[in-house]
Specification:
Order of helices and strands: HHHH
Distance between the termini: 9 Å
Strand content: under 5%
Shape: globular
Helix content: over 70%
Low-confidence stretches: none
Number of domains: 1
Length: 104
């Protein structure tokens, strides 16, 4: 189960990085940078977690940065806060954290 957690976390980070790069023309530059930093932090922290058990805070930081960038992008692209979209992201992030913490 922990391998699934690592795989999903890295995949989420990769997809967030791709979205940041593809959406660079539609969004604000600083939100793209925040999203990329969050994605890189998430990927690196997930890989590091396979060797060190105490790096879960890096995953939390990556998830928070990605969530923040998604909120900024929502305002930049649509001019509003998409509550359902953010709740789904939040629940997915919590599930990832739970998998990484419980099954470590």
């Amino acid at each position: 189960m922990i391998i699934i957690g690592y795989s999903l976390t890295v995949l989420y980070g990769l997809l967030s990085a791709i979205v940041a790069v593809l959406g660079i023309k539609e969004t604000k530059k600083y939100s793209t940078i925040i999203m990329l930093i969050g994605a890189i932090e998430l990927i690196c922290s997930s890989i590091y977690l396979t060797y060190q058990n105490d790096f879960i805070w890096g995953v939390v930081l990556g998830l928070i940065l990605i969530q923040t960038a998604a909120i900024i992008n929502g305002y930049a692209i649509y001019g509003k806060f998409n509550f359902k979209h953010q709740i789904i992201r939040l629940i997915f992030g919590i599930i990832l954290l739970a998998i990484l913490i419980v099954f470590k």
